[in-house]
Amino acid sequence: MTSRASSTLIVPLAVEHAEQVLAIYQAGIDEGNATFETTAPAWDTFDAAKLPDHRFAALDEHGAVLGWVAATKVSDRCAYAGVVEHSVYVHPAARGRGVASALLKALIASTEAAGIWTIQSGIFPENTASLAVHRRAGFRILGTRERIGRHHGTWRDVLLIERRSPAIA
Fold first, then answer.
1. Predicted confidence (pLDDT) per residue in 7-53, tens digit
2. Which of 21, 44, 88, 157 has a C-alpha 20 to 30 A away from that of 72?
3. Are 3 and 10 in contact (CB under 8 A)?
4. Distance CA 167, CA 162 (A)
5. What pLDDT is stored for residue 6 in this prediction?
6. At a CB cut-off of 8 Å and minimum separation 6, what does 83 contact?
7. Does residue 106 register a pLDDT over 50?
8. Which among 99, 33, 96, 40 is positioned nearest to 67, based on CA atoms?
9. CA triplet 67, 72, 78: central angle to 5 degrees?
10. Around 165, how many Cα atoms within 13 Å sit in the side-chain half-sphere?
11. Is the dihedral of CA 132, 138, 142, 148 positive or negative?
């Protein structure tokens, strides 16, 4: 799948994007409201964890990575075959330009084409920009997982969000 939203090109995320993808991930980690992770993994670990058909990079007109989205299985149990968990990250300098929306649109299209009925994620309540873009993409907040984990020595809540596909019956 390749699509273009304004001057942003959405392409399958591949090894040639690795360095920039991991740098964007680390920038999100360093900001403190994106994930419990403290360090971006090595590319091999990242690559192995993400579903190949459900990961995309947003590129500018020069081929620089502006952001990425990727999904993982939530379980190997067959009952959960249609459920994935996703992450979406945008380079700090590219925020507010519709990059996350374009990436989520690509992810939704690829998952629905594959018969996946639920995309879910956990978002820190303080990450209001992420919550807003997800809401616009059709996600809803299911609830709060209170004090679900420690982050830099502080207990953090996580909002559990999901998007149920209206196309999958």
1. 799 999 999 999 999 999 999 999 999 999 999 999 999 999 999 99
2. 157
3. yes
4. 15
5. 58
6. 73, 74, 75, 116, 117, 118, 120
7. yes
8. 99
9. 155
10. 21
11. negative
* Residue 125 β-bridge partners: none
Reference 110, options 44, 51, 28, 150; nearest CA is 51
Domain ranges of the chain: 3-118
pLDDT number for residue 168: 86
Rounded CA-CA distance 112/106 in Å is: 10
Q: Which two tokens stand for residue 41?
A: 């993994």
For the chain, the residue count is: 169
The two structure tokens encoding residue 58 = 């947003």
Q: Which listed CATH number (2.60.40.10, 3.40.630.30, 3.30.10.20, 3.40.50.300) goes with 3-118? A: 3.40.630.30
- CB distance 110 to 130 below 8 Å: no
pLDDT digit string, tens, across residues 132-159: 999 999 999 999 999 999 999 999 999 9
Q: Which residue's structure tokens are 């594959």? A: 114
Residue 35 DSSP code: -
